[in-house]
Amino acid sequence: MQGQLIGMEALLRWRHPQHGLVAPDNFIGVAEETGLILPIGKWVLEESFRQLISWQEQSLPESFRRLSINISPKQFIQPDFVDQLEALQQQSGIDSSLICLELTENMLIENIEAAASQMRRLKALGVHLSIDDFGTGYSSLRYLKTLPLNELKIDKSFVHDIRTDASSLTIVETIIAMADSLDLEIIAEGVETQADQELLESLGCQHFQGYLYSRPVPAAECAHMFTSEPMALLD
Ligand code: MN
Known about the structure:
Number of strands: 10
Bound molecules: manganese (II) ion
Distance between the termini: 6 Å
Oligomer: single chain
């Protein structure tokens, strides 16, 4: 059905006492380099589960399928990453199919064997696996076919130019066709206008995310979306 909220994505912001709200672009790189991304990533996972429990208590809409969580490369290759997730799942009692982990192409391709085995373990837990910013990295079709994936998210840079740049349009068409043939779900990121959505729909894309539906909002303010009109993702 059109216009339903099917999920949320956990986004990180840093409220700094002197500098105000700091965007992830300005601290994630340093956090990756210094290894601080590990405690941050663990906190994000814990907080996401906690949030999901609280939303469940406030009653999620029936259309809600998943909370998506961005996973950093360093976090993903931790030998105990899957154990951490499993422990959280058991403590919280959250159905793991309500969790989607967003990975990036390059972190999978850099060590494909290790990534594939990690993904198989995650899949066995029942979590949904997605490739974020798809189209900006170096995946090959062969890898995509081998990995236990559920979903591709079309990078917002292509969606942004889709109506003005013929090559972006071609890339989006190709990604959608590829996802179709590999039986993967697809979400277009960065949808800003109704015209973007209509064009994407005409290409066969059915799930959307972007400012057209909602800007990022504090978790505490999300619950109103479950009962009112504005949407983060449309089905
Ligand atoms: Mn993401």
